[in-house]
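Quick question, first post here. What does this chain look like in 3D?
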Amino acid sequence: MIYNMHMPKVLVIDDEKRIVDGVKKYYEQAGFNVLAAYDGDQGFNLAIQEEPDLVVLDLMLPGMDGLDVCRKIRQRSDVPIIMLTARVEETDKLIGLELGADDYVTKPFSPRELVARSRAVLRRMHKNGEFLNQGAVSEIVHIGEIVFDVGAHQCQVNGEVIQLTPIEYDLLTYMVRHKKQVCTRMQLLQAAHLGSYEGVERTIDVHMYNLRKKLEEDPTNPKYILTVFGVGYRLTDGA
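> Answer (accepted):
Ran it through. Tokens below.
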């Protein structure tokens, strides 16, 4: 997907028309084209048919709920997804991230903050895409059975290509360039351009969990991405 810097297209999926109308106004003022859907099935169909640059997805939807929509979209597309949730349980947010959402915003929220977070997600996507299109010189790193080509944005494990999300790519790139060093959660937040809003440090743990599932033979007993309790993570050669 090519990110249109001038008029990015955002799909807002939420059954509360008041919320959709409110955020639509702010998005349009910020230079976005806005599509709207009011249930899960309609939202999923629009996400596939219209190929938006960004999906803003409510967790609680009639019919197919937000988690199922997220799961189905991820099976077909790598479009960035920001989840909206009125639930206070942290597990609901983390499940969304585990399914492939890039970020979450808790209701009630500021439309300005949502637009700002949307811009941050799109900047990250655009940065990675632009890097690829410029044909950057490959920086190939071997980590045990992992081969990570930083310039080509490609990762292989035992010869099999592994798809990384933009956040996972940013995190792995940072850890590769600081291999064997302790990377704090705050450093990793900054590397992935995730900001510093309340609760976001916990999301690093979820993204690391997802990386381990993709890179480690036994994610519950990792040999490459090690936890440094109370601080962050360290990348090793697995020796």
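Helices lie at 17-29, 40-50, 66-76, 90-98, 111-133, 166-177, 185-191, 200-215.
The mean pLDDT is 83.
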